[in-house]
Design brief:
alpha/beta, UDP-N-acetylmuramoyl-L-alanine:D-glutamate ligase, 3-stranded parallel β-sheet, 5 strands
Length: 105
């Protein structure tokens, strides 16, 4: 997120690594009240199904979807999933290294 000219990202990778789609499904009501949905690419390594579900929900329900490329290795090893998710993204976040790696792909 950006405030003035300063950028910050607070990531808890252990949360993404342990995420289960059952949690998403049991909390759909909360997602249905969202005015914007933000996700990182780290969910690709633990719950592609959840990321796909959220991205498709955002598109189908006209909810802006913000997606963070998160890490170069995800672009190197999971490009197909990143590209499929980007089809639903209204906003894309990346740092300089991630943007450069994406440009190369």
């Amino acid at each position: 997120m950006i405030v003035d000219k300063e950028r910050t990202l607070v990531a808890n990778l252990s949360a993404a690594c342990a995420y289960d789609k059952a949690h998403l499904m049991s909390n759909l009501d909360a997602m249905k009240t969202a005015k914007l949905i933000y996700s990182t690419s780290f969910f690709i390594t633990s719950s592609k199904e959840s990321l796909k579900e959220v991205a498709e929900y955002a598109s189908s329900n006209n909810v802006p979807f913000a997606f963070n490329l998160s890490a170069v290795f995800l672009l190197q090893f999971e490009l197909d999933t990143v590209l499929a998710t980007l089809e639903h993204a209204d906003y894309v976040f990346a740092n300089e290294d991630e943007a450069a790696a994406f440009a190369k792909t």
